[in-house]
From TrEMBL:
Species the sequence originates in: marine metagenome
Molecular function GO labels: hydrolase activity
Pfam families: Asparaginase_2
Listed InterPro entries: Ntn_hydrolases_N, Peptidase_T2
Protein name (database record): Asparaginase
Length: 71
């Protein structure tokens, strides 16, 4: 099993890997990993602590797709 993420994903990689090792789905692992990244108060690239857009608004856009079902 492999989980790949950028440096800021370090805070969630282990939890995602644990989900996979315990038979969880890849979707559950990705969601758990990203949730920890977005909730990390030291990360200013994503989530509630990220920098505002050019209009000064905090913009939170994300998407995820299951390749098997295309949902």
């Amino acid at each position: 099993m492999i989980i790949v993420g950028s440096t800021n994903a370090d805070v969630g990689i282990q939890q995602g890997m644990d989900i996979l090792k315990n038979g969880g789905s890849a979707m559950d692992a990705v969601e758990a990993t990203i949730r920890l990244v977005e909730d990390n108060p030291d990360d200013h690239t994503v989530g509630y602590n990220s920098y505002p857009n050019i209009l000064g608004d905090l913009q939170l856009d994300a998407s995820i797709m299951d390749g098997a079902t295309l949902e």
